[in-house]
Amino acid sequence: MPRARTELVSAKLKHLRPTQMTLGFREVRYRRRMWKSIGKQAREQLLASHWFPAVRAPDGHFYIVDHHHLGRALLEEEVAHVKLILLKNLSHMPEGDFWTFMDHHQWVHPYNAKGRRCAFDSVPNRLEKLTDDPYRSLAAEVRRHGGFAKEIMPYAEFLWANYYRGVIPPALLQHQWRKAMAKAMALAHSGATEHLPGWSGVMSNPLR
After folding, report:
1. What integer pLDDT is reported at residue 171 of this predicted model?
2. Which residues contact 119 (CB under 8 A, 6 or more apart)?
3. Across all residues in the chain, what is the average pLDDT?
4. How is the chain classified by DSSP, letter by letter?
5. Candidates 3.60.10.10, 1.10.8.10, 1.20.1250.20, 1.10.150.910; correct CATH number of 134-193?
6. 33 to 69, 79, 81, 138: CA distances (angstroms)
């Protein structure tokens, strides 16, 4: 049986459509710092190796289903073009069926910064229009410090963000980041989060 051909596409970053409503601005700033800290050759290698998984829609636009934080960071750093790996070409599909198909494949996450599901037409049409969810930044930082493992499950970190939304007060997150992180890490290594994707088990003194 012949193998499916992987299609790579070069696209203008500013024209890419998101498939989520929010991201973590703190995480975007982290990605920007990383970009600024590397040289020209490393930047070229990063752009060559980080393909944005995307779907081509009936309206002709490319909708990315991952790497929204990197995309927003690169956009703010005035990067013009990125490479896409095309997951599906749905340009032939009736427009009315597009979001149903995307939802079925878990390629869209229409949830706002309060964790509430919204209509598909609430998803912004530009990366620069995505709004901040501080709990999404918290989840990213916890994963980066080993609080849980990266999962192939789409939008897994949003599940962690939504869990933290219910147990860590917004004021603590806004004004005492280190304390919020310590609490989030402790919870990540407790039995309270074993239902979440990437849970790595109970551990004592997780910040050591």
Report:
1. 97
2. 110
3. 93
4. -PPPPP-EEEEEGGGPBPSBSEE-HHHHHHHHHHHHHS-HHHHHHHHHH--EEEEE-TTS-EEE-S-HHHHHHHHHTT--EEEEEEEEE-TTS-GGGHHHHHHHTT--B-B-TTS-B--GGGS-SSGGGPEE-HHHHHHHHHHHTTSB---SSTTHHHHHHHHHHHHS-HHHHHH-HHHHHHHHHHHHTSGGGTTSTTB----SSTT-
5. 1.10.8.10
6. 13, 14, 19, 17
- Tokens encoding 164: 């933290």
- Residue 21 has a CB neighbour count (10 Å cut-off) of 21
pLDDT in tens, 76-113: 999 999 999 999 999 999 999 999 999 999 999 999 99
Neighbours of 194 (CB within 10 A): 10
Say how many C-beta atoms besides its own lie within 10 A of residue 38's C-beta: 12
The CATH T-level fold of domain 8-132 is 3.90.1530
Distances (CA, A) of 75 to 38, 61, 90, 142: 17, 17, 25, 25
pLDDT, tens only, 111-167 = 999 999 999 999 999 999 999 999 999 999 999 999 999 988 889 999 999 999 999
Supply the pLDDT for residue 65. 97
Domain boundaries defined on the chain: 8-132, 134-193
Q: Could you tell me the pTM of the whole model? A: 0.91
